[in-house]
Structure formats: structure tokens, C-alpha cells
Design a protein that fits this description.
It is a single chain. The chain has 173 residues and is of the alpha/beta class. It has one domain (2-171). The chain is 36% helix and 13% strand. The chain has five helices and seven strands, in the order ααββαβαβββαβ. The protein has helices spanning 2-22, 39-54, 82-89, 106-118, 142-145; strands at residues 58-61, 76-77, 95-98, 122-124, 133-135, 138-140, 150-153. The strands form two sheets. It has a five-stranded mixed sheet, sandwiched between helices. A two-stranded antiparallel sheet has the order 5-6. Helix 1 packs parallel to helix 4 and helix 2 (39-54) packs across helix 4. The longest helix is centred in the N-terminal third of the chain and has 21 residues, at 2-22. The radius of gyration is 18 Å and the shape is globular. The two termini are 28 Å apart. Keywords: Signal.
């Protein structure tokens, strides 16, 4: 957990340094207000992290409470209307973050929400992979809706997802 936090801090420092250099500043010479540009992003990341700690069983999209995104995003729980769940899940970003409900502590939330925010994706609880939708007369699962979305597993917490019968064989290799 400590290594994850250190990785996040190092990543932010590298980002700050690169942006500072790209704006003509030297490593040791920065304007006093240089960090003001990052305040909205850091505040948004803080909101996502706080949300992750409180909502351990919801889909958390990167657009939730974002200052840069006009599309209103909301959390979806297992009890949400099936049509709303289907509409959200059908968005299919390039990568998804699997965040089981028992991993919603400080370290994993910090790591997961950085991926969620900067990859413009969402964190998914395990129950998403149990959902079934009737579409075009066929029962479909998350893997049918998003066959090309990669799933980012945190550490070794695969939660047996890759051994489920609905997990596509092409992804097992």
C-alpha cells in the first residue's frame, strides 16, 4: 500500500515537473502560481478518492464531479434500474478498473481513482460481472457488451473473474 501511495506521489511530481518545463520554467525556477493550474484536477481526484472510500459497491465514473466534463455523471449501484445500468455499461471505455468492495481502503482507492481519472474510465464492483441483460432475444453479460475493454486488476485481486464461464476464452491467454 505504501508503494502505491509513493508511486502516485512520484507520478504527480513527474507531471508537475514536465508541465513546468514545457511552459518554459526551469526545474528550480517556477512561478509562485504554477500549482494553481493543478488545483481543479487535484480537487477532483480528492473527491473521487473520498467517494471511493464511502461507496464500496457502486460504479464510479471518472466524470463524477469533474470540473472539465459537462456530462452529468452519477453513481450506479446494484439496485439501479436495469436500463440505467445498461446505458452506463454500454459506454465501454478502453480499460476498466476492477475494484471489489473489500478493497475500498485508502491505498487501493488512491491507486484506483488515479487510473479512473486519468484514463477516463470507471471503477467496477464485482457484481457488474454477474449482471445479465436480455438484448435481441439473447442473454448478454458485461463481456458481451464490452468485448474489447481491458480490465485492470489491482495487485493480485482477480476475484476469480478470469475463471468464470462468462469470461471470454480469448482473454485468458
Amino acid at each position: 500500500m505504501l508503494l502505491g501511495c509513493m508511486g502516485v506521489l512520484m507520478g504527480v511530481q513527474v507531471l508537475v515537473t514536465v508541465v513546468g518545463l514545457s511552459r518554459g520554467g526551469g526545474i528550480f525556477r517556477r512561478p509562485a502560481n504554477n500549482y494553481a493550474d493543478f488545483e481543479p484536477d487535484l480537487l477532483h481526484l480528492n473527491h473521487l478518492n473520498d467517494l471511493c472510500l464511502r461507496e464500496n459497491n457502486s460504479i464510479i465514473p471518472w466524470t463524477y464531479n469533474s470540473p472539465k466534463e459537462s456530462r452529468a455523471a452519477h453513481l450506479l449501484s446494484k439496485d439501479a434500474p436495469l436500463a440505467d445500468l445498461l446505458a452506463e455499461l454500454a459506454r465501454c471505455p478502453e480499460v476498466e478498473v476492477l475494484l471489489p468492495d473489500d478493497l475500498h481502503g485508502h491505498g487501493y482507492c488512491e491507486d484506483a481513482m488515479v487510473y479512473v481519472k486519468y484514463l477516463h474510465t470507471r471503477s467496477l464492483p464485482l457484481w457488474v460481472f454477474d449482471l445479465e441483460f436480455m438484448l435481441d432475444g439473447r442473454v448478454q453479460t458485461y463481456f458481451d457488451l464490452c468485448p474489447h475493454s481491458a480490465i485492470l486488476f489491482l495487485n493480485h485481486f482477480w476475484e476469480g473473474l478470469h475463471t468464470r464461464p462468462t469470461f471470454p476464452p480469448i482473454r485468458r491467454s
